[in-house]
Automatic annotation (TrEMBL):
Gene: trxB
Presence of the UniProt keyword Flavoprotein in the record: yes
Source organism of the structure: Senegalia massiliensis
Catalytic activities: [thioredoxin]-dithiol + NADP(+) = [thioredoxin]-disulfide + NADPH + H(+)
Name of the molecule in the record: Thioredoxin reductase
One MF term in the entry's GO annotations: thioredoxin-disulfide reductase (NADPH) activity
Amino acid sequence: MNKIYDVIIIGAGPAGLSAGLYAGRAKLDTLILEKEKAGGQIVTTEELENYPGSIEDPTGPKLIARMVEQVDSFDVERKIDEITEIDLEKEIKVVKGSKGEYQARSVIIAAGAKPRLLGSPGEKELTGKGVSYCATCDAAFFEDFDVYVIGGGDTAVEESLFISKFARKVTIVHRRDELRAAKSIQEKAFKNDKIEFIWDTEVKEIKGDGIVESMVLRNKKTGEETEIVANEDDGTFGIFVLVGYLPQSDLFKNVIDMDDRGYLLGDENMHTNIDGVFVAGDIRQKSLRQVVTATSDGAIAAIQAEKYIGENFEE
């Protein structure tokens, strides 16, 4: 007979690790399942200045290493397995992976979200080395540099306005001939003297030896290609890819309530529409996706799971 855990946490990013820490400290028998290595998106971040207290060695990998060490110190079990099936509506939840089947009294979903990539050559190699997917995280690193924002929706234009507080110049590169952002946001961007636009254009390639040095753009209507080269004095420029995120929520369709973009719905206490199932981190519908909000979500979800177990599984 399979072991029944108190809580299974799906995902080992900041939200999942925070949930594991709080669950472990609460003496809950806890299992964290992660399909790859711990850390989520933050492991690609070379500098982390906006997580409170992250001053010494402020990198994503170092922060995650410290989180994992804390979690392990409370005897939380961690396994690498990709979840393929779930059955969450019964009293005992069942989570099936490619390596085994797991049971628990409660489940915390912290599977995260991933930035939508351009798919251009050089993009992955230069992520964290000039290519970024988070203006709130990285805009300050490009103070007095040129920055190119790829996208034309609300997020791209809003973040361009934010980046313009730091950058020397912001150029929005959009594959269409008009923005998709709300008119009120567009008006602010058009009035901003530091924001320029390149229309009907896509990124063909990003180049650089360890850091972004140039970018090849292609006009979709004419086919003309243009190479943007870094200012000689700067040596680099910023590229913010803001074309949307993909919540890792396919597994939960028709099970957990979600919005039209696939983000799971949860209340302020991380409760989903199913008793005993909680949500935390970037997979949750929320206004700010940062490490600090993910860890907060995870803590709340674990405390609520502890409360749920106490109320429903008293011996």
